[in-house]
Amino acid sequence: MNPLTNLSQIAMDFFAHPAFPVHARARATDPGTSIDAAINAEKFAASHAGRIMAVLAQQGPSSASKLALFTGLTVVQIDRRMKEIQVKGMAQPTGEVRDGCLVWAAVSQH
After folding, report:
1. Lowest pLDDT segment from 16-30, 41-55, 57-71, 79-93
2. Which one of 3.40.50.150, 1.10.10.60, 3.30.465.10, 1.10.10.10 gives the CATH number of domain 3-106?
3. pLDDT of 44 strictly over 60
4. Integer Cα distance of 52 and 99 in angstroms
5. d(Cα 105, Cα 110) in Å, to the nearest integer?
6. Strand runs (DSSP E) across the chain, as ranges?
7. What's the rounded Cα separation, in Å, for the pair 109 and 72?
8. Which has more confidence, 67 or 19?
9. Higher pLDDT residue, 43 or 77?
10. Where are the domains of the chain?
11. How far apart (Å, rounded) are the C-alpha atoms in residues 81 and 44?
12. What are phi and psi of 26, to 5 degrees?
């Protein structure tokens, strides 16, 4: 199966996990504009995660700098997503470092 065909599903399901409650990026006391921004941030995060996971599936274990080349995201954007991706059990660090960046591998989903 082509890993790119699952991007939409990965993006839609990314935050359907107890570790990522809705509006986790905003406080209840924040103004409405901040809550709106948090909702948009959740959408971007899911899209970024789908792109990252597609590259890991196609290219194998990769550093944030390599992921940046294939996804069009910055290393900072990728680093922000990797912890969330790890908590979801979708990827894990290999323990290797390349180009000063930790190398990540997709976790096999059986």
Report:
1. 16-30
2. 1.10.10.10
3. no
4. 18
5. 15
6. 62-63, 91-98, 101-106
7. 25
8. 67
9. 77
10. 3-106
11. 10
12. -140, 150
- Nearest C-alpha neighbor of 63 from the set 90, 86, 48, 82: 82
- pLDDT-derived band at 27 (thresholds 50, 70, 90) equals low
Predicted confidence at residue 95, as pLDDT, reads: 96
Look at the block and give the residue holding tokens 């997709």: 106
> From CA 96, how far away is CA 107, in angstroms rounded?
16
**Which alpha helices (DSSP H) does 14-63 contain, by range?**
32-59
Q: How many residues does the chain have?
A: 110
Q: Which amino acid, one-letter code, is at 60?
A: G
Please give the Cα distance from 91 to 106 (Å, whole number): 4
d(CA 85, CA 83): 5
Which pLDDT score, from 0 to 100, does residue 73 have? 93
How many CA atoms does the CB half-sphere of 39 hold within 13 Å?
7
